Amino acid sequence: MKKLYLIMIAGFFAILSSTMSKSPTLPLYAQSLGLTKGEIGLIASASTVTGIFANFASGFLSDIYGRKKLLKISGFVFLSAPVLYFLAKDALTLALVRAYYGIATAIFVPVSLALISDLFPEKKGTFMGLLSSSTLVGRALAPLLAGTLIYFVNFWIVFLLCSFFGSIVFALTFTFPETGKEMKKFEFSFSSDLLLLGILDASVYMAYQSIETFLPLFYFLEDKAWLSGLILTVEVSIMAIVKPYAGYLSDKIGRIKPIIFGMGLVSSAMLIFAFSRSLPLVILGAVLFSLGASISEASTKPLATEISKLKGTALGFLESIKDIGQALGPIIVGFLGFKLGFAFVGIFGASALGAFILKFKSIKAEKLP
């Protein structure tokens, strides 16, 4: 259990530091440099674009060279990237810093999950959920801590603190056991099973990023920034609490049923957002989404490691597909509008779920957990 706690602590500080560097720091720092809103939007997407390519590559490399080596590289980026903000004076250099920073989380997330799967094969759902909860706590605390420090001191203290937290992550990676190294030659196949799981995760994060981006712009929340912030905080808190229990449930009853139930809640939540005309409905949608996302994601990740013997590669593949969905969500809702946009995201998730049910309906529980 000591190994699990060390990984969870590293996960907490990793996501705390990376989130502090961007929320609300990135747009405010970019604005202080005189950059336009368009430039700020492109800079904000730089780390996500990095993740699309780096997630799969990092998981793949961890199957060849081992988890520990890749996590050390991730820790070094968490340590070094924040201080590079001091050198960024225009849109290009700031985008390059963000792209470099994106490598850290793109390595850490899939490889740390693969490490959990290696160390605790019988309880991987539960312990992956605990790791995810520790990162969600860091994500929830980061904006408040960074915003307070910027208000009372300045940007420099945030960057130095992010680097300090990164140094903790870097130090902890040296305590991790060495696992992985399953791949002797390239033998990963892009199976339709893994692709379906990736699309499910993509639809969840397409919804998540759409909610995070546009919730404050609902007309009954436009002059209540504190309330939209509170709803988003409650949403993340629910996910942090539910994920370990959802992972435990999937360890006990299998992965298929929780995925079906969870994705059903996510799709329903998006339709509620699409047709909501009141605050209570929006709150209901946020709660249903949090529950559904937690339940579904707590099973897709363990299931991926059971479909493919190359756990790091499989998890990296899922993370890459997920990042595509996360990047597309706000674009779709932004162009189609709230009603059509949220409805599209909900229907996309329901369609992915339908394909998943058709694919796995004939698989017996004793053959696939």
Topology:
Blueprint (H helix, E strand, L loop, with lengths): L1 H19 L4 H8 L4 H29 L1 H14 L10 H29 L4 H29 L2 H19 L18 H23 L10 H29 L2 H20 L3 H29 L3 H26 L1 H23 L9
Helix pairs in contact: 1-5, 1-6, 1-7, 2-3, 3-4, 3-5, 3-12, 4-5, 4-7, 5-6, 5-12, 6-9, 6-11, 8-11, 8-12, 8-13, 9-11, 10-11, 10-13, 11-12, 12-13
Verbal overview:
- 80% of the residues lie in helices and 0% in strands.
- The protein has 369 residues and is mainly α.
- The radius of gyration is 20 Å and the shape is globular.
- The model has no long low-confidence stretch (mean pLDDT 89).
List keywords for this structure.
369 residues, mainly alpha, 80% helix, globular, Growth Hormone, Chain: A, 2 domains
Question: Can I get a quick summary?
Answer:
The chain is built from 13 helices and no strands. The protein has 369 residues and is mainly α.
